[in-house]
Amino acid sequence: MTSTDELMKEIMSDPFANVTFSGGDPMFQAKGFAELARAIREQSSKSIWCFTGYLFENLVKNPEQLELLRQIDVLVDGPFVQELRDEDLFFRGSSNQRIINVQKSLKEGRVIELNLTTENPNPVL
Predict the structure, then answer these.
(1) Contact by Cβ (8 Å): 79, 91
(2) pLDDT the model gives residue 68
(3) Measured at the alpha carbon of residue 108, what is the angle toward residues 60 and 91, in degrees to the nearest 5?
(4) Most buried one in 5, 13, 15, 53, CB count within 10 A?
(5) CA atoms of 123 and 125, how far apart (whole Å)
(6) What is the pLDDT of residue 57?
(7) Carries keyword Phosphoprotein (predicted)?
(8) Contact (CB, 8 A) for 38 and 11
(9) How, if at all, do strands 74-77 and 48-51 pair?
(10) What is the chain's percent helix, strand, coil content, to nearest 5?
(11) Closest by Cα among 5, 1, 17, 23 to 80
């Protein structure tokens, strides 16, 4: 098992890279990812993205998952659905998935999506 300190050393070794949590669904290990995200926040200005098959509305109901949400900038939520696959989408595989501005959504108490297009490929948070 890799410690938070070891992961932070690797993350901080590239000053230009941001951080993405994905694969194996980070929400299954929300407490550990929240700890890592908190360390990233405290030691850098890196943005943190998280990919999950769960919906934002369900994640905010779980205390550990909510704590992870409080530490990340962007959430791509929802399961990949083959029938809704769209190769023209940015940062997601199917049209049911949303790109969410997490901090703004938590503040406003509703989902605030980021609209990324070829004309606007970079999110402003």
Answers:
(1) no
(2) 98
(3) 65
(4) 53
(5) 6
(6) 98
(7) no
(8) no
(9) parallel
(10) 40, 15, 45
(11) 23
From 46, 54, 96, select the one nearest 75 (Cα to Cα): 54
pTM value is: 0.88
Tokens of 38: 């908190």
**In sequence order, what are the beta bridge partners of 76?**
51, 99
pLDDT in tens, the chain (125 residues): 678 889 888 888 888 889 999 987 999 999 999 999 999 999 999 999 999 999 999 999 999 999 999 999 999 999 999 999 999 898 999 999 999 999 999 999 999 999 875 455 566 55
In degrees, rounded to 5, the angle at the alpha carbon of residue 90 between the alpha carbons of residues 39 and 72 is: 20
Distance, in Å, from the CA atom of 52 to the CA atom of 21, rounded to the nearest integer, reads: 9
3-class secondary structure, 111: coil
Whether 20 and 50 have beta carbons less than 8 Å apart is answered as yes
In angstroms, the CA 34 to CA 64 distance is: 8
